[in-house]
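Take the subject:
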Amino acid sequence: MKRYEAAKEQYAAYGIDTDKALEILSEIPISLQCWQGDDVMGFERGGAKLSGGIQTTGNYPGRARDPQELMEDLRVAFSEIGGAKRLNLHASYLISDETVDRDALEPRHFAAWVDFAKEQHLGLDFNPTYFSHPMVKDNLTLSSPDAGVRSFWVEHGKRSRLVAASFARELGGYSLCNLWIPDGYKDIPADRLGPRLRLKDSLDKIYTHELAGVIDSVESKVFGIGLESFTVGSNEFYAAYVARHPGVYQLLDNGHFHPTEMVSEKLSALLAFNAYVPLHVTRPVRWDSDHVVILDDELKEIAKEIIRNDAISRVLIGLDFFDASINRIAAWIIGTRNMQKALLFALLQPFEAMRQLQDSCRFTELLALGEEMKTLDMGSVWEEFLDRQHVDKGMGWMDKVLSYEKTVQSVRG
């Protein structure tokens, strides 16, 4: 407590109320991706073989093999993460005793997840699963020249939105329903416009009307495995689509752009026009490589854009990494805590004073102030947050995860 009081005085000298910052941080929801816990396998009957531009690497022991194991792993992770939390589900994580294809999904197939969310006091987000399925033909779904393929995936998109609507209805609040497809070509295509017109038509069929409680988004990408030369759902395509379709928003995944492009720079551009900007936060060591989020400069810049633009309720933060080379529960905890650390760093910045310096063209003082803030004692404020949230400080949480790994995860085979 003495350390926190000293840090509190340190920040107060710059006009920062650390108690208010901690209160705000505790209310910012972060959506954990369910697929980190089982290597994106899902629970469709017959098992899944990853395909359609999706893969995970590593063979660390303890992967969740069924819904019960995944839920138990999530409980452990949630117990060591403070603040507001959500859970992000893919359609392939349905829980059903019967075989259900993706064009026949209903809210009842996710009822167990709603019960879990109520138990854990979570909101639920949703994603239609456009990969790892026989109807992904030659890496094409909604843009396929085959009308039957397109029809199948349009119906999947429609039903996924109804599932998301049921989440919002059952749990209150909203459910983000995000659509990503793997569509594209490995080599230079003869026709780029045709696939994009087919995708546009498919999306129009999916988004025929708004659904209460559902925030719809589409996710762009530069390229993917097996579609290195052409991606149908590019950034430009989706930016143009959402501009013409109110109620559909563009999701930014910070692994889906050229390495020199920063999502932090794009946030204000979209906030100027869109009510919501959904995010998938990851760490692209080499393009879209989905490493666990660390507290790096880009993560801090993303968080600063959210806080200084008063966009906490408009930027919907979700995580998107899946690392099978380390303990999967630890990955959730590390990644989520780092997202929270970045948000706390942003909450502890004197943005109004910095904005005034910028508008007065006092750039020397702006640079000096920004650099000075980097070495204040944020660590003590972070520890105070953990204390107030009743979760472990330091590496204490790691001992619990390793104990759980030894007694539970390591015996799974």
Notes: The chain has one domain: 28-347. Residues 147-171 form the longest helix (25 residues).
